[in-house]
Amino acid sequence: MVISSSFLMVILGVIFTGLGMGVLIPNANIWVMQLAPIEIRGREIGRLTTFWFMGQFLSPILLLPLLKIISLAQLFYVISIILIGLSLLFFILHLKRKK
């Protein structure tokens, strides 16, 4: 595990993370607005925002019991494997639906 040895590196990491989130949120909103019919766009953006903030709020609460069993690095590894698996599953389902 790499830990930053200077405050400057921490600030740079936060800047890049902020830029990533700053690009992701508007792109997700535009994507939802393109997919949703005009009549329900506001409701769908509201749902996206709700689940976005619910995930930020609930993730520490739901993952705390796992942190008592495994380390933070192992937890990130497990969650990343789960998310990669879900991504592949949705991709495969999307391909099957297209045919």
UniProtKB/TrEMBL annotation:
The chain crosses the membrane at residues 6-30, 51-70, 76-95. InterPro entries: MFS (IPR011701), MFS_dom (IPR020846), MFS_trans_sf (IPR036259). Residues 1-99 form the Major facilitator superfamily (MFS) profile domain. Pfam families: MFS_1. Keywords: Membrane, Transmembrane, Transmembrane helix. SUPFAM superfamilies: MFS general substrate transporter. This is MFS transporter. It comes from Thalassobellus suaedae.
